[in-house]
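Long-time lurker. I teach an intro course on protein structure, and each term I like to show students one example going from raw sequence to a predicted 3D structure in token notation. This year I'd like something fresh instead of my usual example. Would anyone be willing to generate the tokens for the chain below so I can use it in lecture? Attribution to the forum is fine with me.
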Amino acid sequence: MTNATGPAGLTLGIYQSYFGGDFETITPTDWLCSDKPAKGWNTPKFAAKEWVKARVVGQPGDAPWGEVSQEVDGPRRSQMLRKEFELPAEVVRARAYVSGLGYYELRLNGFRVGDDVFTPGWTQYEKRIQYQVYDVTDLLKVGRNAVGAILGNGWWSSGLGWAGGRERHAKPGENLRFLLQLEVECTDGSKHRIVTDSSWTAHRSPIVEDTLYHGETYDARLEQPGWDKPRFDARGWKPVKVVKDSLRKLCAQRGPTLRVTGELYPVQITEPKPGLYVLDFGQNHPGRPKLTIKAPRGTTVRMVHAEYLKPDGTLERANYRSARVTDTYICKGDGVEVWEPRFTYRGFRYMQV
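-- Reply from a regular --
Happy to contribute to a lecture. Here you go:
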């Protein structure tokens, strides 16, 4: 927006976080501007009578500015990565060696690889990074194949970790990173190695926000069905950036990975206030919700968690301190939808919907 010629301009997004986890992005077009700012121009009660309306000259990302840099001290936007490749014969043996900075979920030909969560695990990143090994023989086929990954912040870039007087092993604001080496042997004797390189492409995932303790926001309207399958139309996806500074010591997973070991169902549902429902799962436990819903497109479901209740039956969240412990799902409106967050968890007994 500008009141002069040339490439001067401004683009602005305001993100508001309310208690309970509400978020709103504001991109106003009713700004006023002046080349002679008077005293008090940046205060709420300033009378901008002689200011003129700013002119919208383009959308964010248009030339000559290009994309806005995300150099912030905080979480990064979740990404999807993908690559397609050919195999000339049936697969005899295939192993995937995988790691990342931030969390990853590996996909092959439309299927999730493994049942572990929060991989590759939390380590002192300056010293070592763990990797996992998966037998993916049954997931590959003759001809065209597709491999993909969904990335989340985890401990790497959520901004979590001790600071001020204590070494901080988290790297807030650092880009998410992914490393793969897929070794394949075929019945014709050929061997193939598929690795992460510049041939991969990336796109923002439907996970709008994810941090380990604050929670996850997922907009199902942004899904791209088939993105992890062969022959997907990847127009609009961009080449990945290959980095050279991730060469820390890699080590194999040293212990069991984290897995979902069971499911709990509500033992009681109350309505302490009209339209506000509290689900009691009967015990405090580390976990995350699983939602099944059929609702119109754009319907927003917000799930807030707590370990105990206030006298009026609503959630008491003081012990979480600044953690929002809130998961949000935005419906795509396409029949029955089933969702659970990937890159967050918390200890809780109660959930408010």
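Some talking points for your students: The chain has a mean pLDDT of 87. The helical segments are 154-157.
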